[in-house]
Amino acid sequence: MEIINAKFETSAGNIFQIKQTNIPEIALVGKSNVGKSTLINYITNRSSLAKTSKEPGKTRLVNYFDINNGQFYFVDLPGYGFAKVSLKEKERWSYLIEGYFQKTSSLVMVFVLIDSRRMPSEEDVLMVEYLYSHNIPFSILATKADKINRAQMCISKTIIASTLGVGVENVVLISSLKKIGREDILNVIERAIVV
Ligand SMILES: Nc1nc2c(ncn2[C@@H]2O[C@H](COP(=O)(O)OP(=O)(O)O)[C@@H](O)[C@H]2O)c(=O)[nH]1
Ligand SMILES: [Mg+2]
Predict the structure, then answer these.
(1) Within 13 A of 167's CA, how many CA atoms are on the CB side?
(2) Which domain holds residue 38?
(3) Which listed residue, 68, 125, 176, 190, has the most CB atoms within 10 A of its CB?
(4) Global pTM?
């Protein structure tokens, strides 16, 4: 599997704009600032396909990226767990994220991104429980692995796996900065889109 073509397709700012397609969708979720947009750029080998930001809480939309002219979509979901937005805005985001999961017809895989230096948050745990209880396939990606050493990598994987109630083999360490983990991710995508 290789990505030869990637382009921004469209955004959904409310649940009525959520796409209904036959194209397999790979969604990315996680706390704001965890590295979702940077990961899309890394995997697609494009420096600024998805807008990244040092400031958390910038993506307020569901963004669709077409990969290989209709082979699959990357779907960048709004980041949750950003403290500095109003309750009203938080409600709008969770409504949009949940609306996405309810309305999408072609979701084949969700990547749940967790910062490898941190404990999964309560929202991360809720997200994984939601996916599990709705039978939605997911993989855990531990991001920014360049910020920790080898010993910490092992501890990080163990803590993330046990907090989320998944096997350690389901946690993949990645770094978009140091380019670690692309092959693992492409393998997961390949398996997800053929079934
Ligand atoms: N060290 C390091 N920083 C990263 C990595 N991926 C993303 N970042 C940084 O984390 C910040 C948030 O990234 P972004 O992709 O916008 O996060 P998003 O809100 O989840 O989409 C930016 O400053 C990125 O440069 C990584 O692999 N390593
Ligand atoms: Mg983003």
Answers:
(1) 2
(2) 6-194
(3) 176
(4) 0.94
